[in-house]
Amino acid sequence: MKIMGESAIIIEFQELARRALPKMYYDFYAGGAEDQHTLEQNVKAFQRITMIAPQLKNFEGLISTRVVSDKGSNIEAFASASFDDSLCWKDIGWLKSITSLPILLKGILTREDALRALEVGVSGIIVSNHGARQLDYSPATITVLEEVVVAVQGNIPVLFDGGVRRGSDIFKALALGAQAVMIGRPVIYGLAAKGEHGVKRVVDMLKDELESTMAVAGCCNVKDISRSHVRTEHCRL
To answer: Taking the CA of residue 112 as centre, how many other CA atoms within 13 Å lie in the half-sphere pointing to its CB?
Structure first.
């Protein structure tokens, strides 16, 4: 339902952004690599994860979710020199030697890489295929999230990135073990369509949808969301 011309779902902000931005800029933000198969699957893979009906529960004292944000960062222009074939796992050790800041490794999609990340001592992992911009036909991130979570066994935080368009998508990622969920394109669409207000509206929409999903699923708190709340294609009937 729309109220006073407000967009009701994230995909509507994408269409508004398409109208507002020059075609070259929109295509850059919205597009992916080659056939854009992975870009499409990042979103569609969520639709293949079903919710499990909750048990009845007392909702007294329902705790609201809290949106965590910071001042943001500048968007760097894409350059042909984006790739450095000299990068390797040993570079993590070098990074650790020059900073006391926590190092999170983004782009982990397999159990093997997750275990290697543990070995080199990163502070956290971000399960991501970089917005489907790198290697087309790589797996949708939500389909490999649980594999990475199981591999690290809670030793380091696992964050999730890719394809989130609904609050229920956030719920599913948390249920599969992510400790935080990142959003990218929806924020850009909101910014392009309606500026600061559009960004706030996108974040509020996702927050409201997440809280609604939690209520229907019987979760009074984010910590109540568990693996028992979702069923994936790999689950046995």
So the answer is: 1
Give the 3-state secondary structure of the chain.
Answer: CCCCCCCCCHHHHHHHHHHHCCHHHHHHHHCCCCCCHHHHHHHHHHHCCEECCCCCCCCCCCCCCCCCCCCCCCCCCCCHHHCCCCCCCHHHHHHHHHCCCCCEEEEECCHHHHHHHHHHCCCEEEECCHHHCCCCCCCCHHHHHHHHHHHHCCCCCEEEECCCCCHHHHHHHHHCCCCEEECCHHHHHHHHHHHHHHHHHHHHHHHHHHHHHHHHHCCCCHHHCCHHHEECCCCCC
Which residue in this structure is represented by tokens 């929109």? 26
Would you state the pLDDT for residue 147?
A: 95
Over residues 189-219, the pLDDT tens digits come to 999 999 999 999 999 999 999 999 999 999 9
- Catalytic entry in 130, 197, 229, 234: 130
pTM of the model: 0.77
Return d(Cα 52, Cα 70) in angstroms, integer.
34
Q: Does residue 109 contact residue 131 with C-beta atoms inside 8 Å?
A: no
- The verdict on whether 130 is a catalytic residue reads yes
Query: CA 61 to CA 49: how far, in whole Å?
Result: 29
**pLDDT tier at 100 (50, 70, 90 boundaries)?**
very high
Q: Please choose, from the candidates 156, 193, 212, the residue with its C-alpha nearest in 3D space to the C-alpha of residue 10.
A: 193
